[in-house]
Amino acid sequence: MTSNPLALITSYLRDDGPIVVENPANGEVVGRIASHDADQVSAIIDKADTARIAWAKLTAKERAKLMRAWHDLVMANADDLARIMTLESGKPLAESKGEVTYGAGYIEWFAEEGKRAYGETIPGFSPKSRIVTILQPVGTCAAITPWNFPLAMITRKVAPALAAGCSMVVKPAEATPLTALALEALAQQAGIPEDLFRIVPTKTSSAVGNLFCSHPKVRKLSFTGSTKVGQILMAQAAQQITRLSLELGGNAPFIVFDDADLDAAVEGVIASKYRNAGQTCVCANRLLVQDSIHDAFVEKLKARIGTLKMGDGMAEGVNLGPLIDAKEAARVADVVKETIGAGGKLVVGGEEANGAFYAPTVITGVTQDMEIAREEIFGPVAPVIRFTDEAEAIRIANDTIYGLAAYFYSRDIGRIWRVMEGLEYGMVAINEGILSSEVAPFGGVKQSGMGREGSRHGLSEYMELKYGLMGGIEG
Q1: For 57-72, how does the pLDDT look when each residue is reduced to its tens digit (9 = 90+)?
Q2: Is the pTM higher than 0.85?
Q3: Measured between alpha carbons, how far is residue 165 from residues 57, 159, 353 in Å?
Q4: Which helix (H) or strand (E) holds 297?
Q5: Which DSSP category does 355 fall into?
Q6: Looking at the annotation, which residues are catalytic?
Q7: 335 shares a domain with 416
Q8: In terms of Cα–Cα distance, which of 305, 13, 351, 58 is closest to 185?
Q9: How many domains does the chain have?
Q10: Domain with 298 in it: what CATH number?
Q11: How far is CA 106 from CA 153, 154, 173, 179, 266, in A?
Q12: Are residues 111 and 45 in the same domain?
């Protein structure tokens, strides 16, 4: 760890840079950087497309060696990366450190998984021929990443792309580009070719997003963000039939059945709902609690929330930081007011926003027709919905256009299988509050997107399947 974490990105800082990065905890300027316009990004894409040719010719083991060096540098600079992340995103330092390790895990995983991009032989239709398949890199790729996980959202897209033999150009969120630039700097230190992986911060996000979809050399776009923006990108991508991976909005149910371990379920809520101040795409958005244990569960949750310490993410002991900015905190406050006005009962929290800070909040008496139960809150607010039986819980949980993540707590093995199979979500966590891992396929169904990140399936997203028919075999 250095005395100045920004030393990692000194070469990117500009006194007159148009992109101004502020600490959401106090509004102080963390740094200023340049903005790339569409023409500059187009030129970078062209260079990336050239660089990928030599990269793809390396053996998987040669690529893995460079990626492993990148992973090792990320871990060696973990403290500085975490401090940069906290300064620009506001999340508690402990969470930032956890994200560095989590994000680096994708680099390590795909460095190894790239060695296992197997083809196959297929029984043929003629004794004179043989059928084989091989996997080849998609080509030049682009990615658009959000501000809530400024490191991990990049590594879980870039790592499989590089492992597959592709190049990658990434547009990070305007609010949190510094962590992304630090990743680029470390990749170059590791020996990964400069033009192969580029970060392009910009103030013209719409123009660059459209460019990613329309540039003839971009074969694949990966996007993490809102369903609304995903719909726009999907329409734009039709211009070139650009291959897409979309990780979009969520409305995760967190179901607590009457046979659950309530203390464990409360801890699961704390991990899932209040991590990063509720600003995660897989965040528990609705708490569904069975009638018979509703009141006991709410009291336990209220008591546990009382132990959370809100403040500047750099301060000792803080486990709940600010939202990304004051505008978002004010929006969350309005959501709470609207819910109370519609009949919700405030259990804890619910104060006015204080700059970018909003206190952890619980509201009971929520019904499925309320706005808070239908749209992502993206803040530290937990609406609680009562249900009577298993069938009703599944019905309420599935009553949404989204299908990213779901959680439930139960100790009945039969119920565990029934509910897991009945929930219309790409990911389901049982008796756990956090489900993301580089070894597991991350992604959703319905309007939560398409494609998977992580696991062996994440590598397939950056590869094309080629069928080869070999004739003239029989003499």
Answers
A1: 999 999 999 999 999 9
A2: yes
A3: 8, 10, 47
A4: helix 294-305
A5: T
A6: 247
A7: yes
A8: 13
A9: 2
A10: 3.40.309.10
A11: 10, 10, 20, 16, 29
A12: yes
